Each structure stands twice: as C-alpha cells, then as structure tokens.
C-alpha cells in the first residue's frame, strides 16, 4: 500500500500567477498567504520523492476559506480552488488525492459545493475551519452539511484558520500557532460531541489536524464535566445520558467514548506524544500528516515514524499506509472507515 500524507496544502497556480507582480485574485493579493506555499507541482513531487511519500491528500490552504468575505466571492474562490485541485489529481492520479474548500458562511451553498466536488470532481471531502465566525458546530444550522457529508461518505478535515479563539492573548511568540491551533481542535471536537452531531450523524468521518490538539489529553476533563466520572458533576453520581443539562445536549455515553469516532494526523513532532495519542484513540485512527509546506511541517516524516522505538512495526505500517488507504477507500475490500466504536 502507498505511503500517504493526509495533511498537505496548496496555493492554486491561478492565484500564484494572478498575484505575481502586484496583481490580485478575487480581491486577494500576494500577502494573503505565505510565499512558501507557492510551489510548482514539479517541486512538490520532488519533495514527496525525497521524503518517501507516494501520495498526498491535497487541500487548498486555509487562506482560501474566506468565510468573512461576501458569499458570492467566497463561492467563486471555492469553485476555482476546487476545480484546480481536481485538475492536479487528474494529471497525477497516482500521486494526488484531494479535499476541497467550502463557503461555510452559507450552509446551503456549502452542501451544494460538497455535492459538486465529491460527485462531479471526485474529491474525497473538504477541509473546514474549527468554527465559522462566532458559530461553533453545535449550532443546528450546520447539521444539513454534516448529514450531507455522511451520505456522500465525505471526509471532513478540521483545520484552523488564522482567527484562533485566543488570538487576543497569543499575538506574541507565535502562540496563536503553537497554542491557538490546538485549542481550536479541542473546541471543534467538543462542539461536535456535546452538540449531538456525532450521534445524529453516526457515519460521519471527521479528521482532526495536528494530532487532535489537546483532545486526547483533555478528554478526561470533558468526562468529568459531563458527569461521567464517579461522583458526577457538580455533585453526586450521574447515570447516562451524560451532559450538562439545563437545555444542553445530553450524551448517551461519556465524551471519551467518542474518541474513536474521529481520525487524527500524526503531526505531533514528538514520539512520546504520538505514543500517548495512539494509546488514547487506537493505532487504527492515526494517519500520516505533515502540514506540508507550512512553516510547521513535519520534516522527513517517514524516516521519523520508522525510527520511533516507541511504536511497533504494525503501528508504523498502520500510520503510514493502512489507515489512510482504508479511510480513502483505496482498496475495494476496505471496511467502512466511519465506524470507530468498539
């Protein structure tokens, strides 16, 4: 089975060409995104060959979310990004697969674009941010999108934009990236679980970037707050359904029981942290993800994984190849990837 990088970004060539020499692309200029993302396909393939990566799951860079732009412009940007990334896949079907981007400020438009990119373009789903402006995904407005993703068997890859929730306190020391990104992932997990989305859409396939953020470490606290521990919260033992009550969603099981409903990339930079993630969620839920070519990308990832003494040979194979192949349905006999509960 191929070694597959499930977390790799693209700046569309049409954007790169338009903004070169001071131009603009649907109102976006060169400073809208980092120059390091402006790679040719040839340079990308050379880097993949160097790192021993057979395939990349491409996504438009988060710059192109444009959720705060006017809807008409965002739809045009999404369609242009998705059409170009689909063309990359058609040109190199043995090297690339792709997820698109959606105009998430409008759920109806997002459902339409998700249908178009999966049914017409052959993309495998979409990358979306952890929130849309002030709205989190427990907001009922988003349920039609999650229902559509479930029916289309589309992967939803949760990846932050620049507007992290703690931005006002993380402007120095690049903490918006170091801390904010991981916080956002934890909030996305919590909104999907406590908001009942994972129960209403039992075949939804969410993939969490950057090792799931603080989710594996923080989920016992979510269990405690939901009343799933001995003693309950705030006082006295609680029986299922778990939850906060008083109008909040109630859960049929503890938040930690939802860990295996998600997939997680391995972009943790640390063997012991990756070991902790695997022990928390299972080795069959972790995939190779490098964040290439972002500044935080995982350097020499295949060699890194293979060199970790804390992983078994079977776990290394699962992370590098097997789990992604199953999730992407690359094998005709691959079992359904969305059922994660034991």
Give a concise summary.
This protein has 342 residues and is an alpha/beta fold.
Task: Give a structural overview.
The chain is 38% helix and 11% strand. The strands form three sheets. The protein has a six-stranded parallel sheet with strand order 4-5-6-7-10-11. With 342 residues, the chain is α/β, with parallel strands linked by helices.
**Percent of residues in β-strands:** 5-15%
Q: How large is the radius of gyration?
A: 20 Å
Order of helices and strands: EHHEHEEHEHEHHEHEEEHEHH
Sheet with most strands: 6 strands, parallel
CA-based shape:
globular
How large is the count of helical segments?
11
Q: Classify the secondary structure makeup into a structural class.
A: alpha/beta
Q: Order of strands side by side in the largest beta sheet?
A: 4-5-6-7-10-11
Give me the count of strands. Answer: 11
Q: What is the averaged pLDDT score?
A: 91
Q: Give the fraction of residues assigned to helices.
A: 25-40%
Distance between the terminal alpha carbons, to the nearest Å?
25 Å
Spans of 5+ residues with little confidence (pLDDT < 50)? 333-342
